[in-house]
């Protein structure tokens, strides 16, 4: 198959619970596929070099920087984006709620990636220490917050308490 003079590959993925089958160029990054073909624009394009982590999604339950994965590498995979985190319910995921309550966002650009990385962190370690949260999020950059409120939010979500209770 060819499109615009190039080769394409058919992929099938499940994104936020919905099945997608598309033809993609072999060099297409997953972040561009998610945004441009699947309409999952909650995943921002940050640096395109895997330095910032803003584009982090869950690929088969594990956090990955979607600018470092080709769409063809995700063939057959299940992907969860920030938009699918609450499983279609109108209620926020506990991490989304904790980020809101702890003021763990300012410009919001890094927030989807931070939350998705934190979901993976908490799936491996449901009760992390502050140091473990900092280590678990070190591949995700934030230029606005200074990280303290982000760490507080992740700890609050892990404990199941509000951020006011977590900081007491």
From TrEMBL:
CDD domains reported for this sequence: fer2 (cd00207)
Tree of life domain: Bacteria
GO molecular function, one term: oxidoreductase activity
SUPFAM superfamilies: 2Fe-2S ferredoxin-like, CO dehydrogenase ISP C-domain like
UniProt organism field: Trebonia kvetii
Record carries keyword Lyase: no
Phylogenetic placement of the source organism: Bacteria, Bacillati, Actinomycetota, Actinomycetes, Streptosporangiales
Keyword tags: 2Fe-2S, Iron, Iron-sulfur, Metal-binding, Oxidoreductase
InterPro entries: 2Fe-2S-bd, 2Fe-2S-bd_dom_sf, 2Fe-2S_ferredoxin-like_sf, 2Fe-2S_ferredoxin-type, Beta-grasp_dom_sf, Diverse_Oxidoreductases
2Fe-2S ferredoxin-type domain boundaries: 9-85
Pathway connected to this protein: Alkaloid degradation; nicotine degradation
Keyword Oxidoreductase: yes
Name of protein: (2Fe-2S)-binding protein
């Amino acid at each position: 198959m060819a499109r615009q003079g190039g080769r394409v590959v058919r992929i099938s993925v499940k994104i936020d619970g919905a099945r997608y089958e598309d033809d993609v160029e072999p060099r297409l990054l997953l972040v561009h596929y998610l945004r441009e073909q699947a309409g999952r624009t909650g995943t921002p394009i940050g640096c395109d070099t895997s330095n910032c982590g803003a584009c982090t999604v869950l690929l088969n339950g594990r956090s990955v920087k979607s600018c470092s994965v080709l769409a063809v590498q995700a063939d057959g995979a299940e992907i969860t984006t920030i938009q699918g985190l609450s499983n279609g319910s109108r209620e926020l995921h506990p991490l989304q709620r904790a980020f809101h309550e702890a003021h763990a966002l300012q410009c919001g650009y890094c927030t989807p990636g931070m939350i998705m990385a934190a979901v993976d962190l908490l799936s491996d370690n449901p009760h992390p220490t502050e140091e473990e949260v900092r280590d678990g999020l070190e591949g995700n950059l934030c230029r606005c917050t200074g990280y303290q409120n982000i760490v507080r939010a992740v700890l609050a979500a892990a404990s199941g308490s509000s951020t006011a209770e977590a900081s007491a």
